[in-house]
# Entry
Amino acid sequence: MKKSNYITRAGWDRLDKELKFLWKDERPKITRSVSEAAAQGDRSENAEYIYGKRRLREIDRRVRFLMKRTEDLNIVYPDHQQEGRVFFGAWVTLINEDDIEVVYRLVGPDEWDVTRGEISIDSPMARALLGKAVDDEVVVKTPEGERIFDIISISYKPAV
# Structure
């Protein structure tokens, strides 16, 4: 399934920060350590050299991915016309059939983090929520079966 090209400003800033860190801090540091390890002689049995080269490949792979991905992303800013309905970037407070309250924010597939309550716009939960309003009932298909949620609030500003 193709990933959406949407991202919040905060998510784009995190990806940009990671890219800059890898390129300006981490890669030069690893390059120096590989050069020092190479100067010590036999590279075939030098663990620092072998690990360093492997780490450089990982960094380069991630840098290439981040550079290409950030070119393709569209930063989405909430619009006041969205108020009252669930769209990208919304914080949605739900209550499930067990009267347990959960809060999710709909974000791009490159920035979701369940520990922060962020879910991908491409997830089944987010797809079910899109376009809904307060007091709407949402049915989400999960591996455990269908779950029913009621929307109790929608906001485009983080809760303090």
Observations:
- The radius of gyration is 22 Å.
- The helical segments are 9-38, 47-72, 124-129.
- The chain has three helices and seven strands.
- The first helix runs from residue 9 to 38.
